[in-house]
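WARN retry 2 of 3 for item q-0093 after timeout on previous attempt; input resubmitted unchanged.
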Amino acid sequence: TLVPEGYEVLGAENGQDALDKLSSDISLFLVDVNMPVMGGFEFVENLKQKPEYKSKPVIFLTTESSADKKEKGKALGINGWIVKPFEPGSFLKVINMLSG
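OK item q-0093 returned
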């Protein structure tokens, strides 16, 4: 959905892999809640401790939709929660809005 719209996408196998691949040109993070090694919540906790990433937008793109998990994400400062499967047009609107 993103690549045909001109976005460059950097993938990671899990939260730890994503932390290892951090670079200053990443403008937005799409994170799954459920990942091996390091899950989404732990990844965001670690990411937000880094001053250069504290204000970068984070969206959870996940099958999870429980109110308690959404509250936990909100407390961590995420900017959006999209439940899979998603509607591409709506997804792109959110990405365009948050990526500036």
